[in-house]
Amino acid sequence: MLLQPTVPMASLDELWFQVSGTLCNLKCEHCFISCSPVNDTFGYLSYERVMRMLQESIELGVKEYYFTGGEPFLNRELIPMIEQVLKVGPVTVLTNGTVLKADWLKRLQTAEQNSRYSLEFRVSIDGPTPEMNDPIRGERTFQRAMNGVAMLCEYGFLPIITITRTWEETEEDAILDSFRAVLKEHGYHRPRLKVLPRLKMGGEEKRTEGYTPLERITPEMMEGFDVSQLLCNHSRVVTDRGVAVCPILIESESAQMGETLKESLVDFPLLEGACYTCYQYGSICANPSSKKVEA
Amino acid sequence: MNGKIAFFGGIYNNYLALETAIADAHGRDISQIYCLGDLGAFGPHPDRVFPLLIENGIQTVQGNYDHSIGHALEDCQCGYSDPRDNHFASLSYAYTLENTSPEYRDWMKQLPAEIRFTWQNRSVLLCHGSPRKTNEFLWESTTSTAFLERLADEQDADIILGTHTGLHWHRRLENDRHFINVGVLGRPENDGTTNVWYTVLSVEEEEKRPENSSVSVEFIPVRYDYEKLAWEMEAENIPEEFIETIRTGWWTTCLEVLPAKERRAGKY
Ligand code: SF4
Ligand code: SF4
Ligand SMILES: [Fe+2]
């Protein structure tokens, strides 16, 4: 009998904070953890909790920090959290860009200027037009997110626009070109784009389809594979229920790895459909775009 | 080994800057020069780099580029992910592979992935990107000090030096330990100036208490004949975008891997 495919925990390089749980002001159809204004399966992380985990992460030599949700900016303590974390390491915030406020961005701009580290924003927009974006993300979300991008630019940030690929590969170049043009019109002169594959879970499973039983990593596939491509090889995520293996699988029972970071630094079996997507596309959670396009 | 030591980062075929840097180092009473790899890419006439390294006894680490060219791999393993970045990277890779003679490819194949030695009672580790991965990008603005402390512990090294990103920086760690990106001689640093950089390490003695000596890190700007390099690149039909970087000091490609702070510092 073959062993199950397993990813070793090599080194805790990135620590994710799921600061707003599954709470979001939007309810995008493709959201892989079905976030919404009322989904409180996972709740907010408190400031104290984040500071405690931060302390442990420094002892472990964590390299970078990520804030995600839901929508992180719904957490009223996000700004002081980022200010503190920027004192010890770089921060990336994943946002839908629709709830940003000028005085928050002003504080964050100052915090980044006083830090040696970068503060990155990743803003999710799913098409270069309202016609493409709004059916997935909700009415008027295109315009609202674009306003958010413009505001980030005003405060000197260079947001990374993350786009879930809901088109055919042949259309990719044209769509990305028109994205760049639209962003320039909104005052973003050197747009940075990142394309993400769809994760066929949560909302997306209902919107299109789920994973078939064949879409799984097999032990054979792991032979000669560069496991550093997988986030779970070098990251963990803190939720209000404890530490989980990665931000994608938080809802799965087996993904819960304990209360402390130290406990969570163990190997993990790659049994989910989403793992297959990670395997195919590589580094889908890193800031630079992933190399591969949908086959 | 004692005295001052010098470190060159990626050469990227820029033999003119290499010549100038070697002469500059000789004028500074340097006891040994090291190179941290990435000898090819970007510039013209790859074969002009190797004799300079070999004749001057420069000990060299194998960069991702050298591993690729040495083994004639499909690409440079630079670690880019953006399609435009990869397009330009593949043009210079094809040029460099075609113009590197087999004897030097063999020479690159045998270069070590890391070099370790003791200097001034400190253990020094030379790598290319990071000690754990040749093509890992360690940028100043995305690498926490806690991570570098861990790296120094794990590697049992007092001073770790690397290159690969193209931008020099230095972080002082506890107990006079250091992480240093030595910069590159191959192309300017995306700051609007045309010079390139290398690094010199020395030790500052406290006269009365030599046990309190501390490491001093100096980044040296190298002003070389970049116009000549640009002409030669034109004559070799190297892409316009690369030549612009040599003449203006602004990066025009390979920008998508840059974190926010480093990206903002540039023009594009
Ligand atoms: S995809 Fe993002 S913005 Fe949309 S509902 Fe989910 S968490 Fe909210
Ligand atoms: S979903 Fe991706 S990151 Fe999460 S455990 Fe599976 S392979 Fe790893
Ligand atoms: Fe390199």
Structure in a nutshell:
The complex is a heterodimer of chains A (295) and B (268). By secondary structure, chain A is of the alpha/beta class.
Taking strands numbered 1, 2, ... along the chain, how are they ordered across the largest sheet of chain A?
A: 7-6-5-4-3-2-8-9
Structural class of the secondary elements of chain A? alpha/beta
Helix content of chain B: 25-40%
CA distance, first residue to last residue of chain B: 43 Å
Radius of gyration of chain A: 18 Å
Main sheet of chain A?
Answer: 8 strands, mixed
Sequence of secondary-structure elements of chain A = EEHEHEHEHHEHEHEEHEH
Write the CATH homologous superfamily of chain A.
Aldolase class I
Number of helices of chain B: 9
Q: Return the domain count of chain A.
A: 1
β-strand percent of chain B reads: 15-25%
In N-to-C order, the SSE pattern of chain B is EHEHEHHHEEHEEEEEHHH
Question: Largest chain-chain contact?
Answer: A-B, 31 and 28 residues
The first-level CATH class of chain B is given as Alpha Beta
Q: How much of the residues of chain A is beta strand, in percent? A: 5-15%
CATH architecture of chain A: Alpha-Beta Barrel
**CATH top level class name of chain A:** Alpha Beta
Radius of gyration of chain B, taken over Cα atoms and rounded to an integer in Å: 18 Å
Low-confidence stretches of chain B: none
Helix/strand-derived category of chain B reads alpha/beta
Low-confidence stretches of chain A: none
